[in-house]
Predict the structure.
Amino acid sequence: MNIQSSLQTKSNGCPSVSIVIVNWRTIKQTQLCLRSIRKFTRYPNFECIVIDNDSRDDSANYLQSLAWIKYIENTHSNPDHRNGLDLGISHSSSDLILIMHTDTFVRNHFWLEHLIEKMGDDTFVVGSQDRVIRPIPWFLFFDDYYRRGKLEKR
């Protein structure tokens, strides 16, 4: 039995996935991360949950303007990454949860399918990782993408 058949599925027989991202004063990276998810995700059954940990910058305005994400403001008295993740996970009703950092940028249309496939038959996988490539700083890479028109501003 593979993971797709062992989980409750919704569309196209694919398990639902919640991508949980915690933002704290990393608006530029978060914008790039979300743009790459929006551009390169072809998986039919995912949601993106973004938690803002009291950034006190333009993060809240930007994140609230994105209709395709589920925006959550962390109002915990001492917001940290751990309780931000807990908050995001508690708002998920998906079969699978993918925790992603704001400095993660995807560049392959089938990245999410690939990670789910790596899980194989194990329905209790703690982590799955694809290749990590960091030959150049992220801001140089995405600045080039902007100039070539490969990423939208939203």
Q: What stands out?
A: The chain has one domain: 14-124+133-147.
